[in-house]
Amino acid sequence: MAEERAGDELAPNPSVLFLHPDLGVGGAERLVLDAALALQARGCSVTIWTAHYDPGHCFAESRELPVRCAGDWLPRSLGWGGRGAAVCAYVRMIFLALYVLFLGDEVFDVVVCDQVSACIPVFKLARRRKKILFYCHFPDLLLTKRDSFLKRLYRAPIDWVEEYTTGMADCILVNSQFTAAIFKKTFKSLSHRDPDVLYPSLNVTSFDSAVPEKLDDLVPEGKKFLFLSINRYERKKNLPLALEALVKLRGRLTSQDWDRVHLIMAGGYDERVLENVEHYQELKKMAQQFDLDQSVTFLRSFSDKQKISLLHGCTCVIYTPSNEHFGIVPVEAMYMQCPVVAVNSGGPLESIVHSVTGFLCEPDPVQFSEAIEKFIHEPSLKVTMGLAGRARVKEKFSSEAFTEQLYQYVTKLLV
């Protein structure tokens, strides 16, 4: 394609191949789909290749794109407890890249990959080298603990490969200024590379076209103040903070107000992921210990329509992760005119305006409960902050700006 059009610097509508480890329902998958749809709408030929794809456990928009799968037979881990997940992810992505090059019968100009950079050398060593755009959600080497000598020994070559192969990309994008700063601090050998920031955006069409459903089957009768937590069932998301804040809130309210409060813990859940299964049970047990059984509903692997209905009907979103790389949930909530109470670190510092579109707090149950209580005693906050939130999303995270910016990054690689 691009190589065959030598001298044609303005070659239109490049063919773009997306390479992603597992097309599930997380924030990374949301961004990959939005990016692919954006380039397709801009006239590019787009294909997604992934090691695992289940149409029943993926965003509905994935059905609007050609999605192909290879390598799902390879293990996701090396044993009990998810050990060796990193090296398995590297092997799966390298296999996927090799399959695309030699067996996939694909013609493409640019490869867009994310999360796992180990596949980049495969395309660089191809007879006709491909241009690579790597989207770094966050350095993987910071997402795991090294609490033993064996773990440090195991991670050392993986960390080196991540840093070295990331530097082989022709263009590096990150999801926030926060991640850009962490990138520079973490990858010392890449100090000469300045990643560009491309904020995730919303595919607002699905939000605008959806008709919210009634929540009668999820929310007990008589509940007026509905609070919502949306996050995968992972320990790093600090979901216990929402339950602990609810306990503190109970102590601050009259029994009449407390009886009208309800929390929905909606989370991405995959039975193949041991941590999802374990943490879901841990949270349910915690709710029982706190005597919150009648005040909390746990919802696993909800549909897009359910999410939109929940955002439409809730008083505010409680967003608990610390140092979140970006966090698409607060943006989705603000677009749906729903204020957000979030931890004052990471991506939410760039998406939420404190006391305007929500509240930014220390990851402390007391501070979270104080912020949540304001929506009970001042119901007008929901409306004023909701309107401000929607305006902010339209100004800073519009799909038009995202599409044009991404398209420019892709086409510049071919000049």
Automatic annotation (TrEMBL):
Keywords of this entry: Endoplasmic reticulum, Glycosyltransferase, Membrane, Transferase, Transmembrane, Transmembrane helix
Domain Glycosyltransferase subfamily 4-like N-terminal, first and last residues per copy: 25-199
Reactions that this protein is recorded to catalyse: an alpha-D-Man-(1->3)-beta-D-Man-(1->4)-beta-D-GlcNAc-(1->4)-alpha-D-GlcNAc-diphospho-di-trans,poly-cis-dolichol + GDP-alpha-D-mannose = an alpha-D-Man-(1->3)-[alpha-D-Man-(1->6)]-beta-D-Man-(1->4)-beta-D-GlcNAc-(1->4)-alpha-D-GlcNAc-diphospho-di-trans,poly-cis-dolichol + GDP + H(+); an alpha-D-Man-(1->6)-beta-D-Man-(1->4)-beta-D-GlcNAc-(1->4)-alpha-D-GlcNAc-diphospho-di-trans,poly-cis-dolichol + GDP-alpha-D-mannose = an alpha-D-Man-(1->3)-[alpha-D-Man-(1->6)]-beta-D-Man-(1->4)-beta-D-GlcNAc-(1->4)-alpha-D-GlcNAc-diphospho-di-trans,poly-cis-dolichol + GDP + H(+); a beta-D-Man-(1->4)-beta-D-GlcNAc-(1->4)-alpha-D-GlcNAc-diphospho-di-trans,poly-cis-dolichol + GDP-alpha-D-mannose = an alpha-D-Man-(1->6)-beta-D-Man-(1->4)-beta-D-GlcNAc-(1->4)-alpha-D-GlcNAc-diphospho-di-trans,poly-cis-dolichol + GDP + H(+); a beta-D-Man-(1->4)-beta-D-GlcNAc-(1->4)-alpha-D-GlcNAc-diphospho-di-trans,poly-cis-dolichol + GDP-alpha-D-mannose = an alpha-D-Man-(1->3)-beta-D-Man-(1->4)-beta-D-GlcNAc-(1->4)-alpha-D-GlcNAc-diphospho-di-trans,poly-cis-dolichol + GDP + H(+)
GO cellular component terms given for this protein: cytoplasmic side of endoplasmic reticulum membrane
UniProt EC number: 2.4.1.132, 2.4.1.257
Matching InterPro entries: ALG2, Glyco_trans_1, Glyco_trans_4-like_N
Signal peptide as annotated in the record: none
MF GO annotations: GDP-Man:Man(1)GlcNAc(2)-PP-Dol alpha-1,3-mannosyltransferase activity; GDP-Man:Man(2)GlcNAc(2)-PP-Dol alpha-1,6-mannosyltransferase activity
Protein's membrane topology: Single-pass membrane protein
Pathway this chain belongs to: Protein modification; protein glycosylation
Database matches in PANTHER family: ALPHA-1,3/1,6-MANNOSYLTRANSFERASE ALG2, ALPHA-1,3_1,6-MANNOSYLTRANSFERASE ALG2
Family: Belongs to the glycosyltransferase group 1 family. Glycosyltransferase 4 subfamily.
Protein name: Alpha-1,3/1,6-mannosyltransferase ALG2
Lineage, broadest ranks: Eukaryota, Metazoa, Chordata, Craniata, Vertebrata
